[in-house]
Amino acid sequence: PGRAAMYAGLQELGVANGEDLKETLTNCTEPLKAIEQFQTENGVLLPSLQSALPFLDLHGTPRLEFHQSVFDELREKLLERVSAIALEGKVEERYKKLEDLLEKSFSLVKMPSIQPVVMCVMKHLPKVPEKKLKLVMADKDLYKACAVEVKRQIWQDNQALFGDEVSPLLKQYILEKENILFSNDISVLHNFFSPSPKTRRQGEVVQKLTQMIGKNVKLYDMVLQFLRTLFLRTRNVHYCTLRAELLMSLHDLEISEICTVDPCHKFTWCLDACIREKFVDNKRARELQGFLDGVKKGQEQVLGDLSMILCDPFAINTLALSTIRHLQDLVGQDTLPRESPDLLLLLRMLSLGQGAWDMIDSQVFKEPKMEVELITKFLPMLMSFVVDDHTFNVDQKLPSEEKGPIPYPSAIPEAFTKFLQENRIACEIGLYYILHITKQRNKNAFLRLLPALVETFSDLAFSDIFLHLLTGNLTLLGDEFALEEFCTSLFDGFFLTACSRKENVHRHVLRLLLHLHHKVAPAKLESLQKALEPTKQSGEAVKDLYNQLTEKLELRKSSPAEVTETPSMELPLPTVPTPASR
């Protein structure tokens, strides 16, 4: 079959091939004469060449080598010419030339030496004839060999085939995100949200999808449909990130054919700038509000897309960080949340983002109603926690009276716990407030609010993104891990309540201990090691992490001398200034 492929299609064009030569030689009486005649009839027909060929014979250059080099040279010239035709003259004329060329050459498409030319002609045709596309699609090798420009023409009418191409990329994307969240490198400076939007868009999957879509609106719509369907099926918010990254990747390449027809383009562009700064400033807040207020009657469906853009964890992170910053500013200004339009807009966008799944699932496109109590009760309560901290800090500095030092308030208002359990937006903001105080190394506030995290709305406090950020911020409280009370509150009171029912929590605790085991009191470490032992049902990731931890602890036991040195090396760490906490 390999030899047959070499000559595929020549007969149809009336060109003699190897089989013809074989037949001639089988049926002739004088083989040498027959070969000479075959060479004359099928060689390069240039009179001046006939006298030059014997010179090559004298130099021992085989005729095959000569013909091969002439062939390669001609093929290069032809490829250059095809690319030139695709750019010159009137549009109709140039494509007519290319179509004629395709008609003449297509029968040779399976001939390896000619295939690149046929593929090049198809690549430059904006509309390859349907019949030819079907032939390419039916042949695995041809389909594989053709340019992405031709594949796009095939894909746009074959959603299932396009889905097969896109699906492995989407799986890879989700896997990459999860690998970052579970990475063994725990740091407060480099976390899931550290890379800028522009850097993220350079990722392999986004680049490949951008390349596959080109300027084809139909293919772009198909990818968005895949992302919506997968988001609905799995509730995985990373699909929302990819939706925004893909649009912005096409924006970077200035592909106006797509950007101008995606109604979310300008909103996403503006939000992208906020995500880059990790803050929504007043000017951009006005712009974003303008887009939301500008959704016209009859076009409400765009809210489904906007909600998906706002459900991207990078958007939620930016909105939540901005909300916490606004609340702190309001404390300083003696202003209530309901009096701040900027804060209300942040809540409106958070609410739209958090309601994305319900909206797309129900196909009811209207903004979710904001619960009044969130603004009148929950946010003022968070502000009162900020005030508690200020008061406590001032008290500490005052000369102590006879009554002794004033203790830090330890009770949590029951309403706070109830809000975290029943209201999604309150829960999200509450969790970000806890991340904020941890980053500020505010142990008192952290221990006070931690019990409220055991039961939260939809178990948000045990979600990967929150635990990834929390473990990172807890490294700043490293020295507290030596204290029994702190460890009991954190591990027994929080982490271990969910370890057995949630494998991801088990993984995050092991990640944290791998990083901070040398800070934990030995007795506590031993009981944690027992409590965290994997069960038969545990997945490979948990077992692997547990084994890593066991190895580290064995090493510590076998070389106690080094252990005593480790803390002394790390002592200066707490005094290193941390970046201004947001």
Automatic annotation (TrEMBL):
Database matches in InterPro entries: COBRA1
Superkingdom of origin: Eukaryota
GO biological process terms held by the UniProt record: negative regulation of transcription elongation by RNA polymerase II
Region annotated Disordered, chain positions: 556-582
GO annotations of cellular component type: NELF complex
Pfam families: COBRA1
Protein name: NELFB factor
